[in-house]
Amino acid sequence: MSGGWNTIESDAGVFTYLIEKLGVKDVQFEELMTLEPEELRQAGQIYGVIFLFKYPTGEARSDTPKDGTFDYDAAENIFFAAQTIQNACGTQALLSVLLNKDGEVDIGKDLREFKEFTTAFPSDLRGDALSNSDLIREVHNSFARSSPFVDETQRAATEDDDVYHFIAYASINDKLYELDGLQPAPIFHGPCTVHEFPDKIIPVLQRRIARYPATEIRFNLLAVVRDLRIHAREIGDMEKLEEEEHKRTEWQWENALRRHNFVGFVGELLKGVVKDKLAQSPEAYNKWVEDAKKKTKRRVEERQKQGIAGDD
């Protein structure tokens, strides 16, 4: 493989522009704030959901899932890829929805060719093909947050790390499937038409969340839906259309910021501040440093009073 995969955020704007860059048309992601079927229905035409949760790194793999049943036949009959590399699970989850919705969704030339190329592969080879796809990896990495300090590809997770994992849920062939590349096969959760999906998926998610301590709140749920601007145009809702266009503008700005790190800029800014203080006089510079030390000391003392440990 010619390169590694970097971590990407579970963010509607990241995922929306990532799939557009891969050639998918008229699809977007919407973050869901509640586990209510009605909120899911309000998102419009739904293709599936992406669920992010804290993954128990020390948990032993089981021959039976904690909820639902493994469908080994479906592993070969629908698009299901084993996860063979760290950090790729976000993109793998969204592709697990979209490549199983080819026909309902225009997935574009490149993804359609990838799907056709891997159709006869077993799930482990599909995972290898996905991990080794230069196109998919490069698009994925273009949405990773820039950092000059950490190479995400060089260290495996340990049991002490907070590791997060993406999985997909979708109605495929009138069956509700959980598509998790770390499992040996798709997990079948019962009959489910596309129309029934909002009602059927919520109890599955609630049962999964219930397996965690009540204090665990770090979950994220994204719906894979038809571009909401299309429906707004169809019904002539100009207010909704303007709202969605504004959202896209914000997503583009946030994605542009992710591609840059500002360490050099901040360093040069600090140099300029120091130079300005020195130009005033050595006394002014020394006073500025001492004032900063006193403020830092006060903040540390306040944090200690509140029971919050300060940085070393």
TrEMBL record:
Entry keyword annotation includes Hydrolase: yes
InterPro entries linked to this entry: Papain-like_cys_pep_sf, Peptidase_C12_UCH, Peptidase_C12_UCH_sf, Ubiquitinyl_hydrolase_UCH37, UCH_C
Cellular component GO terms, alphabetical: cytoplasm
Top-rank lineage group of the source organism: Eukaryota
Biological processes per GO annotation: protein deubiquitination; ubiquitin-dependent protein catabolic process
Protein name in the entry: Ubiquitin carboxyl-terminal hydrolase
Molecular function terms from GO: cysteine-type deubiquitinase activity
Domain UCH catalytic intervals: 4-226
Annotated coiled-coil segments of the chain: none
EC number: 3.4.19.12
Pfam families for this protein: Peptidase_C12, UCH_C
Active-site residue numbers: 89, 165
Marked site positions, Important for enzyme activity: 180
Keywords associated with the record: Hydrolase, Protease, Thiol protease, Ubl conjugation pathway
Family: Belongs to the peptidase C12 family.
Site feature (Transition state stabilizer) residues: 83
Catalytic reactions on record: Thiol-dependent hydrolysis of ester, thioester, amide, peptide and isopeptide bonds formed by the C-terminal Gly of ubiquitin (a 76-residue protein attached to proteins as an intracellular targeting signal)
Enzyme class (EC, first level): hydrolase
